[in-house]
Each structure stands twice: as C-alpha cells, then as structure tokens.
Amino acid sequence: MTTQTIQPSMLAMLANTENEFSVSAQAQDDGWVVYVHDKQGDRVLLDLEGKAAAVFDALRAVEQRLFALGIEQFEIKRLEKENGYDDWLYAEVREALDDPAPLIPHEEATRRIRAAIKVK
C-alpha cells in the first residue's frame, strides 16, 4: 500500500480555500509526522524538499511549520499502545496487590535498592 503525500506548498494553498480538511500530528518512533485528512484521504506532509515525509523532533517544531503554512489548529495523536498492554499492566498490579508477603517499609526498600545499585 502506497502512502499518499502532500507538498507543503499544497497544504498552504489548501489552508486558503473553503475546502473541508483537518490536520493531525502523530507520534511515531522517530518523531512527529503530520497528516492531512480531506476528501482525497489521509496524506503525509512532505519535507521542504518534497522528497520524504517530514519528521519533526518536537511538537513545537510541528506547530511552527504548520503555522507558517497557514494552519492554526491541529489534532495531536499519541503513539498507540501495543495490543494487550492494559491487560498486562492490570495483571501485574493485581498480582502485586494480591501478594501475601509482608509489606516492606519505604526506608527498607530504598536501602535495598541503593545497595543493589552499589553492587553494580
């Protein structure tokens, strides 16, 4: 499946029309990627050279680029959790809560952790 793209200049032109569209910044493993959603589908914003998807290292950089292109608001989408993560986390917490072993006071737990760090 080929990902559709949009040039920054085309997004600037779209921003100055009456056409319905929305923009979102989505967190990826390597940074933030901007998507334009309109009747043509979901399109990835290209870098200024128009050769590859624009990947931003900070959300502030996304905001600055979009503002320069005439986009004043956009949606922020965080990286999706892997399937089953919530179930795994719930099970871990439930197991800890159900553990019949006596509780360890905070000071003792801290002492043990510091001792383990010193051993390394």
Automatic annotation (TrEMBL):
Lineage: Bacteria, Pseudomonadati, Pseudomonadota, Betaproteobacteria, Burkholderiales
Record domain Stability determinant: where: 80-108
Protein name: Stability determinant domain-containing protein
Entry-linked Pfam families: PaaA2
Alphabetical list of InterPro entries matching this protein: PaaA2_dom (IPR048851)
